[in-house]
Amino acid sequence: MRHFFKGLVLAVVTTTVLATVATNTKITSSSGNASTTYFNFSDSWKKLQKSPFSLAYLNEGVIGTYGAKGLYTNHYFYAGYKIDKYHSFKIVPAFKTDYTGDNNNESKTQRGNGDAHTEYQYTTFRLYRNSILKESKHGIGLSGQIRHYEYNDNNREKGQLTKQRIYPYFSKSFGNKLSLSVPFFTEFVHGSTKRERNDYVGATLTYSANDSWAFSTGAEYYTTNNEDSTSDKEYYTITPAEVSWARGRFSASASATFDVAASKDRFDGFNNKWWKNNGSFVTSLYYSFF
């Protein structure tokens, strides 16, 4: 399974490069069947960046305040195609590097020695729709996604097969510096023995100091709904502070996130010392190749 998705992404990129290079290839005949073929790599790369194809990488590092077991890194590779000015499609394989030896699968010896272990997790197929509502026309912005998840073999063995997510998000600007985004989604998890529906809503307030620096704060609510209702839970998360920086094709951010409460069936109080035992420090590095 993992080799299939690796190959799929590689095929998309390779096809794009070859197609772009082909547009820049010149053939000149001298005599008979003799010919000379050459291309300009710089021009080809510029055409690739202007093409409807895209390729990007996101590295997300997480350090838990509850100890070393929270140390891991997520890797996301985005291979996309812009259909038109409103629609685009992306394939996003995800990998996880674990530094703690906390996962339960075949490389226990490696993790037990404290070695890093990278493993394929899942692939999402995403269809984007931008500007469903435009703030300049409707007073509020609305875009959305539809996602389909295919999980790795380990999750499939545990009964988690696929997941679908309907993911709209609103946005609103307050002057040139302040903006509010409100994402929410409903997702359906399909397992070998049961199904699950999860719901999420969040809100993030962002202050843009200039073209490069921004500061944010936010809160999230997430609930799980199982068929048997025996393990339904609610989660309340806050991000008191996030700082982000962007320039050109590169961006980076750092944030502190806390799970302030997790309850069953109803809200029944905050987690014990959530600021100490239920927090994470998250960093992200993003680069768009084209």
CATH structural fold name of the largest domain: Porin
Number of helices: 6
Q: N- to C-terminal separation?
A: 26 Å
Give the biggest sheet.
12 strands, antiparallel, barrel
CATH architecture field of the largest domain:
Beta Barrel
CATH superfamily label of the largest domain:
monomeric porin ompg
The first-level CATH class name of the largest domain: Mainly Beta
Rounded Rg? 23 Å
Q: Which sequence of strands runs across the widest sheet?
A: 3-4-5-6-7-8-9-10-11-12-13-14
Work out the strand percent.
Answer: over 45%
Which residues form runs of ≥5 with pLDDT under 50? 1-7, 9-15, 17-32, 103-111
* Outline type: globular
Secondary-structure blueprint of this entry?
Blueprint: H1 2-24, E1 26-29, E2 35-38, H2 41-50, E3 53-64, E4 72-82, E5 87-98, H3 108-112, E6 117-133, H4 135-138, E7 141-151, H5 153-157, E8 160-174, E9 178-191, E10 195-208, E11 213-226, E12 233-247, E13 250-263, H6 274-277, E14 279-288
Antiparallel strand pairs: 1-2, 3-4, 3-14, 4-5, 5-6, 6-7, 7-8, 8-9, 9-10, 10-11, 11-12, 12-13, 13-14
Structural features, described:
With 290 residues, this protein is of the alpha+beta class. The chain folds into two domains: 1-51, no CATH class; 54-288, monomeric porin ompg (Porin). Helices cover 18% and strands 58% of the residues. The protein has helices at 2-24, 41-50, 108-112, 135-138, 153-157, 274-277; strands at residues 26-29, 35-38, 53-64, 72-82, 87-98, 117-133, 141-151, 160-174, 178-191, 195-208, 213-226, 233-247, 250-263, 279-288. The chain has a twelve-stranded antiparallel β-barrel with strand order 3-4-5-6-7-8-9-10-11-12-13-14. Strands 1-2 form a two-stranded antiparallel sheet. Helix 1 (2-24) packs across helix 2. The model is unreliable at 1-7, 9-15, 17-32 and 103-111 (pLDDT under 50).
